[in-house]
Amino acid sequence: MSPHPSRLLIVAVSGRALAQSAGRAGYRPVVLDLFADQDTRAASSVSRRVNVPGTLRIDPARLLETVRRLAPGAGLVYGSGFEGRPALLERLSRGRALYGNTPATLRSVRDPARFFPLLRRLGIPHPAVRLAPPARPEGWLVKHPGTAGGTGVLSARDTPPARGDYYQRLEAGDSMSATFLADGRRALVLGFNRQWTAPRPGRPYLYGGAAGGLAVRPGLRREIEGALDGLVAETGLLGLNGLDFIRRRGTWLALELNPRPTATFELYDPDYAGGLFRWHLRACTGELPIRAAVPRAVRAQAVVHTAAASVVTMKFPRWCRDLPMPGTSFAPGDPVCTVHATGPDVARAMALLRQRVRAFRRSLVRHAP
Fold first, then answer.
1. pTM score of the predicted model
2. Sheet of 153-155: strands edge to edge?
3. Which residues have a Cβ under 8 Å from the Cβ of 197 and sit 6 or more positions away?
4. What mean pLDDT do residues 338-367 have?
5. 341: DSSP letter
6. CB–CB of 341/359 below 8 Å?
7. Kind and range of the H or E element at 294?
8. Which residue(s) pair with 194 in the sheet?
């Protein structure tokens, strides 16, 4: 497998960030996702939607047929959307180089019956987890391991048991993540991020955004880096990945591992010559940077969702990305775009982000039909 493939295919729920980073590395990939946004199309040789019509879910049959027509033999990079679908990833990657975690790795780190015992064996702290419903559901979350972005996280008190779900104790603290590269043997942390939710009816823990460049005390950083080295060595993780965790009173608790490029990689992409997509490819062939780059700025991003059914026709500010095609229809709660902000530190990046989100929401209201 070459770190410099001649042709590339990107498949994800949203492929825009990966496509733009690939462009910095000199690629014009085929991109298949759920949106085929304006900026995704601009960064790709071909962009197509592969969703189940009227939903935000990948349609396996549509995906496989589109790949057969548009990208035979192209090297594959995948993002979110395969957490609970390793069999689909197996079919998609057949006959092509896979730049990312294998279906076997995906199964091992997304199966709670395997992942949390591994954490215990490695001495990595995590909230209490059980596979059967707790006798008293108050203070417990129910999670479906085949989802991403908080879409499958609910209160156990209000949710009947379903096949495949597991239960995790709700813990107080700062919601954070570590963005890292892995070469199958060890990890390199690129940065720590603050994360937050954007609650919607039926989705109380929906991912809302993140800010990068968070300072973590040296002892805690070394502990998390050591834990990630252990996880990579045990599971063979490759490329860009993310670990969600809770920080409180100088300690931490691992929540889940996302075995693919996460939204937060974009918070560090400009700090690397040629972009992090290039390093994702190289890490998948066993090469890591000597050290993480020193960030040139702190970056933050927030997903803006619609409050009601609408057709968005407005002109988007320059600090918006994931720009929908003109005339796109949105159901209540659908993501419209991502707002971005940059600052010299976390506080000022976050202040600018909040200001821009408020301004964008006002524009949405003014342009509502």
1. 0.95
2. 129-130, 166-169, 140-143, 153-155
3. 150, 175, 204, 205, 206, 207, 208
4. 92
5. E
6. no
7. none
8. 176, 211
Report how far apart, in Å, the C-alpha atoms of 211 and of each of 177, 268, 361 are: 10, 10, 20
Q: What is the pLDDT of residues 259-305, one digit of tens each?
A: 999 999 999 999 999 999 999 999 999 999 999 999 999 999 999 99
**Alpha carbons 132 and 114: distance in angstroms, whole number:** 15
The two three-digit tokens of residue 311, written as one number:
């057709």
User: Which residue type, as a one-letter code, is found at position 228?
Assistant: L
Say if residue 121 is exposed, middle or buried (CB neighbours under 10 Å; 0-12, 13-18, 19+). exposed
What are the residues whose beta carbons fall under 8 Å from the beta carbon of 271, sequence distance 6 or more? 293, 294, 295, 296
Count of beta carbons in the 10 Å neighbourhood of residue 118: 17
CA angle 116, 57, 335 (to 5 degrees): 95
Cα dist. 190→101, 225, 323, 362 in Å?
18, 10, 27, 35
Residues 6+ apart with CB under 8 A from 128: 168, 169
Mean pLDDT, all residues of the chain: 93
Reported in sequence order, the residue ranges of the chain that DSSP labels E, i.e. its strands, are 8-11, 30-33, 46-49, 75-78, 129-130, 140-143, 153-155, 166-169, 174-183, 187-197, 207-211, 238-248, 251-258, 298-305, 310-311, 320-321, 329-330, 335-343
Q: DSSP code of 264?
A: G
Which tokens in the block code for residue 94? 């057949």
**14-62, pLDDT tens digit by residue?**
999 999 999 999 999 999 999 999 999 999 999 999 999 888 889 999 9
Within 8 A by CB and 6+ apart from 101, the residues are 109, 236, 237, 238, 239, 241, 259, 260
Token pair, residue 231, equals: 């996880």
Within 8 A by CB and 6+ apart from 317, the residues are: 356, 359, 360, 363
Q: Distance of CA 117 to CAs 7, 8, 310, Å? A: 39, 36, 46
The one-character DSSP state at 317 is P
Using DSSP's 3-state secondary structure scheme, residue 296 falls into coil
